[in-house]
Amino acid sequence: MKGYFRGLNHRNIKILLNAGVNKIITYGSAIWAFSIKARKIPTLHLIQRPFLINITQSFSTTSTNALQTIVEVTPLPIQTEIERLSTMILQLQKTTMYNDIIFNPQDYEEKQPKYNIHPAVGLHNFSCNIAKPPPSIELTAYMDGSKIQNKVGSGAIIKRKTGLHSEWQGYLRPQKVYIKQR
């Protein structure tokens, strides 16, 4: 497993572990970890172990629990259990019991809905006066960001008193970002 991480910084491996691997493993834990058995716990530790060894650069004889303590990473079985409980309570809105404690979804606040309206929709009365620019010593910048036909684009022009200094345009497509600069 050491060859997979060759050239990566230990901080990057820890980010990869926390943001990638742990999230992938705990995804769907409300279903598969409903009753986490003793035989699943060593498997979860085995998944996390190579990352911990590479982060600490320690010997393979070091115990997994010691490595988790050194790296300050929550053990994967505990993280899976936390993810399962939060999914059951907050997303599925089901009353759940853990260690003889009953967790009721009505006891928790609901998340506010995300803001789904594009900011450009609310700018109907906004206008830019190019004929009378604000006072500036040397440079004046004009910027625009817009959404047309579900495509997002932006541009900027920087002018001097004597003429055009620089111009920039960029727009997003589903797969790539295109930037054009003059």
Automatic annotation (TrEMBL):
It comes from the Eukaryota. This is RNase H type-1 domain-containing protein. It comes from Stegodyphus mimosarum. The lineage of its organism: Eukaryota, Metazoa, Ecdysozoa, Arthropoda, Chelicerata.
